[in-house]
Design goal:
Distance between the termini: 15 Å
Oligomer: single chain
Order of helices and strands: HHEHEEHEEEHEHHEEE
Number of domains: 2
Helix content: 25-40%
Number of helices: 7
């Protein structure tokens, strides 16, 4: 994709979240509905397009850990809250180049992580596991070398200790495994087709009903 080539020519080490999701959308990976805005005049139009509740995020290729830097406001429910959140994020960014991402609020009790690393020996390797705060705490993940077939993706899901999270449990629907399979296969394709990509981190992938949706995304470049 041209956005990857442009980022490489600019000497950047990563794509912004918005750019990362454009890449995912190109490969038909489900992502949040969102609008990138640059000033408060564009806020109202974005709100009308996405609808409440909302998430507002500072968005810049130079910022990888938005929550740690105080650049995320969640569960925004009216215009007053949205304008206050916008102003707070702009102040926190303190003149740093970037924009504001207006994003639908995706709800779900289960969070997964999907990723890709470029191993020096094996090349692109796809990762799957428990997401959210549990990614670093539990390190419950599995890996496969790309390209993946359906059986590879299904085996990855069974290998994690928390695999039962994908089943119907406590009133939650069973996860659409075919949709997850498609995501894992597509992430492998991205790694194979774009040598400039060093890593991909999709975390969290929230299960909304039975559907996996990528809520946050980061693409690291070589």
């Amino acid at each position: 994709m041209e956005l990857i080539g442009q980022a490489v020519r600019e000497g950047r080490s990563s794509l912004s979240e918005y750019e990362s999701k454009q890449l995912l959308d190109h490969y038909e990976i489900p992502v949040t509905r969102e609008v990138l805005i640059h000033d408060i005049k564009e806020l109202r139009a974005a709100i009308r397009e996405i609808g409440y509740p909302l998430v507002l995020k500072g968005c810049s290729p130079d910022v990888r850990h938005k929550s740690e830097k105080g650049l995320i406001r969640m569960d925004i429910r009216n215009d007053q809250e949205a304008e206050r959140a916008f102003e707070e994020i702009v102040r926190t960014m303190n003149g740093q180049a970037g924009s504001i991402l207006i994003q639908e609020m995706v709800r779900g009790q289960r969070e997964l992580v999907v990723g890709l690393i470029r191993d020096p020996q094996f090349g692109p390797c796809v990762m799957f596991g428990l997401g959210g705060i549990f990614t670093e705490i539990l390190k419950d993940v599995s890996f496969r070398v790309a390209p993946l077939e359906k059986k590879d993706a299904l085996e990855m899901m069974k290998e994690i200790k928390g695999c039962r999270i994908l089943e119907a449990v406590r009133g939650l629907e069973a996860v659409d495994l075919n949709a997850l399979v498609d995501i894992l296969i597509s992430v492998g394709r991205i790694g194979l087709e774009h040598d400039a990509i060093k890593e991909i981190d999709l975390n969290p992938v929230i299960i909304s009903g039975d559907r996996p949706i990528v809520v946050d995304a980061l693409v690291i470049l070589n």
